Recover the amino acids of this structure.
């Protein structure tokens, strides 16, 4: 009866470093082949275990700035001393193909997206506590104490921006967090403003004729023998 718009959703997921948003996204992607993760570009160094074109596209700061001049990014920002940006390429194409596009970006980038794409869905992944956030950052063993402190300070500012998002999910239990994110995505598919048209199939049209349009059917009083 209902035909929904075929364009895919744009899901923007943010959260402070250590909140576990990257892990949550990977789990969501496992169960949803219709989702496509937009890979961002960054000027920061690659970390152990990361892969080019999977986690990020890694370029030098000079290369990143050149791409800014070329209009390569949908949005970009400098975060904790490094540049991060969302390439325009493929995003609109994937959505038109019906794919749900996920963007993992920070607060300022999300705010920029909100200004130009009015149907985007914004989800903030929150750490369960400051103590747990500190533990996760320290367990990475990829950054100096000074950088960890800077990320902690940034996290405090970011969490105060949570009211700008549509949804907030506390990542205390990974499985539960993933289920909540998937539920949000499913619920968004059912929004009234995603309905393209309401239609009746042939059987429904016949029933409508019988109940509404047929005066003989409506007004006739059953006879009792």
């Amino acid at each position: 009866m209902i035909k929904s718009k075929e364009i895919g959703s744009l899901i923007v997921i943010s959260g402070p470093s250590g909140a576990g948003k990257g892990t949550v996204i990977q789990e969501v992607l496992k169960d949803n082949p219709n989702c496509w993760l937009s890979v961002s570009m960054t000027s920061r160094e690659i970390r152990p275990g990361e892969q080019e074109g999977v986690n990020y596209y890694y370029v030098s700061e000079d290369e990143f700035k050149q791409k800014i001049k070329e209009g390569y990014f949908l949005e970009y920002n400098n975060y904790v001393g490094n540049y991060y940006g969302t390439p325009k390429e493929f995003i609109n194409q994937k959505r038109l193909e019906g794919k749900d596009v996920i963007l993992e970006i920070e607060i300022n980038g999300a705010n920029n997206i909100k200004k130009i794409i009015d149907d985007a869905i914004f989800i903030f992944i929150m750490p369960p506590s400051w103590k747990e956030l500190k533990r996760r950052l320290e367990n990475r063993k990829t950054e100096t104490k000074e950088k960890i402190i800077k990320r902690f300070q940034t996290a405090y500012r970011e969490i105060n921006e949570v009211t700008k998002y549509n949804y907030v999910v506390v990542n205390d239990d990974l499985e539960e967090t993933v289920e909540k994110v998937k539920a949000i995505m499913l619920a968004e598919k059912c929004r009234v403003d995603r309905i393209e048209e309401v239609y009746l199939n042939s059987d429904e049209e016949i029933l409508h004729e019988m109940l509404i349009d047929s005066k003989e059917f409506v007004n006739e009083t059953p006879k009792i023998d």
In short: The two ends are 40 Å apart (CA to CA). The chain has a mean pLDDT of 85.
